[in-house]
Amino acid sequence: MGYLTRRQHRATLTPMGDAKRKGFFLSAALAGSGSALAHEKWFFKGQRPPLELTSVFAPPNLFFVLFALFVTGTAYLWWRLRGYRGLLPGPDFFGGLAWRRSALYGLVPAILGVHVAVPLLVNGVQGTLFAPSSTLPGAWTYVLGLVQTGVALSFFYGGFARAAAVVLALVWTLGLFVVGPEGMLENVLYLGFAGFFYLAGRGPISIDRLIFPRLEPPARLIRYAVPTMRVGVGLSLVAVALTEKLANLPLATGFLEQHPLNFTGALGLPLPDTFFILSAGTVELIVGLFIVFGIFPREIILVAWLPFNLTLTVFNWSELIGHLPFYGAMAVLLVWSSVRGGPLAVDGPDAEKVLEPNVPPEVAASKGL
User: Fold this and answer.
1) Which end of the chain has the least Cβ crowding within 10 Å, N or C?
2) Between the CA of residue 157 and those of 113, 164, 188, 189, 295, what are the distances in Å?
3) How far is CA 279 from CA 109, 335, 343, in A?
4) Domain boundaries, the chain
C-alpha cells in the first residue's frame, strides 16, 4: 500500500478529532471577543450564584488557569530577552520628539480625570459603589453616593485632587465591609487611580496647578503614578476573570442564557458554553496578568481593545460608562514611553526649574535647568 497523499490523510481524520483541533484554535480567537471582557454581574438578572473559589483548583478550570500562567511566564521571559522592548513601535519610531511627547503626557491626568469622574458621578447618583453590581445598602446609599460625587467633581475640575485621591482610597477600603471584598477586588482599579492622582496630582490643566500649587505632589513621586494605575487596572481584570468566569461557571452560564453571546455556532463550529466561558476567562486572565507585570503593554492593549468594544451595541450606555476608566488607561498605556523631566511634562510647582516655556528638554539640560 502506497503512502497517503496529504489530502487523503486529512480525509481519514475523525470528525471529533478534527473538531477538537479546530475548536482549540477557534477558541483562542473567539475568547477575545463577545463576552470575554464583559462584566456579567452588571447585566445578570436575578439572584447571582455565589463564588466558588475551590472550583479554580479542579479540572477543567485548573487547566485553563495553568495555561494562562504558562503563557504569562513564557511571555515575560521573551519580554526580558528582548530587553523589555515590544514588538510594536512607539511614538519615537514615528518621529515623536521627547519634548513634544512630554507636552502630550502633561494632558494624561486631565484625560484620566474625566474618564474616572464620569462613572464615579453616575454610580454616586444611582446608589452603587464603583459598579452597577455593587448596590449600597441603607444609609450608605446617601453617604457614599455623596462622597463619590464629590470625588468625581474634584477629579473633573482638578481641585484638591490629591485629597480626593486619599478619600477615594478610603472609600474603596470601606467598601470591603459595606459591599464585600468580591466587589471591591473587581473594582481595585479605582484604588490604582487613587494612587495615580495622589502621586501625579491633576496635572497642568487643573485648578490645583493654577491657584493651589503647594498642593501639587513632589516631582520624585510622579514616576510611580502610571505604574500604580497600571497595576490596579490589571488586577481588576484578573479578579473579574476569576469571580465572573473561572471561579463562577454558574454565573457565566446563566449570563449566556440571558444574553446568548456564544456565537460560535454562527461560525460553523458550535462550542459548549462551558468551553466558551473558560476560554474567555483565560484570555481575560492573561490580559490582566500582562498589564499587571507590564509585559508587552502595547501589544496586549491592542488585544484587549476589541473585546472591550464589541458588546457596546448590546449593553449600550451602561457598559460604555462603566468601562471609561479602562478606556482611559488603555489609551495611556498604548502611547506611553519615558521622557526626561518627569513623564507628565510638568513636575509640580518647581516646573520652571525643569523646563523653560517652549524649550525642548535637551536644550534645557544643556543649560543646566
Assistant:
1) N
2) 8, 12, 23, 21, 33
3) 35, 29, 37
4) 28-366
Which of 162, 127, 177, 133 is closest to 147 using CA atoms? 127
Residue from 265, 288, 234, 338 nearest 71 by CA: 288
From CA 297, how far away is CA 88, in angstroms rounded? 10
Tens of each residue's pLDDT in the chain, 369 residues? 444 444 443 444 344 445 444 544 454 444 444 444 468 898 888 899 999 999 999 999 999 999 999 999 999 999 999 999 889 888 877 877 877 777 888 899 999 999 999 999 999 999 999 999 999 999 999 999 999 999 999 999 999 999 999 999 999 999 999 999 999 999 999 999 999 999 999 999 999 999 999 999 988 898 899 999 999 999 999 999 999 999 999 999 999 999 888 877 777 778 899 998 999 999 999 999 999 999 999 999 988 887 777 777 778 888 889 999 999 999 999 988 765 444 565 444 444 443 334 444 444 433 333
Cell of 243: 469571580
Grid cell of 173 as nine digits: 477600603
Q: Which three cell numbers stand for residue 38?
A: 464583559
Are 303 and 32 within 8 A, CB to CB?
yes
CA-CA distance, 200 to 210, in Å (whole number)? 15
pTM of the model: 0.83
Residue with cell 446617601: 142
- The amino acid sitting at 213 is P
Residue type, 85: R
Task: Report whether 221 contacts 199 (CB < 8 A).
Answer: yes
